[in-house]
Amino acid sequence: IGDAPALDDRTIGTLQIAKRQVIADAIEIVGIASELVGGFSYFKRSPLEQAQRDVRAGLFHPFTPEKTLIHAGRMALGVDVAE
User: Fold this and answer.
1) What is the pLDDT of residue 29?
2) Which residues lie closer than 8 Å to 24 by C-beta, 6 or more apart?
């Protein structure tokens, strides 16, 4: 299996950018599915209702999409990410 990658700022930044893209894609997919299903997708018994809340929550944990890009930009420029 090999060694686990170091959990440094660069690795965390890479993971956050990947997470940002996955969340954006998931929001789009759940949105399309909700449009296809219609109003039923908002009922508690619909799995899409939970999916809508889950993918939206991904926007704020642990960073917002904007903060993710700021972090990645600082990393790329060699600026201290702790600022």
Assistant:
1) 96
2) 65
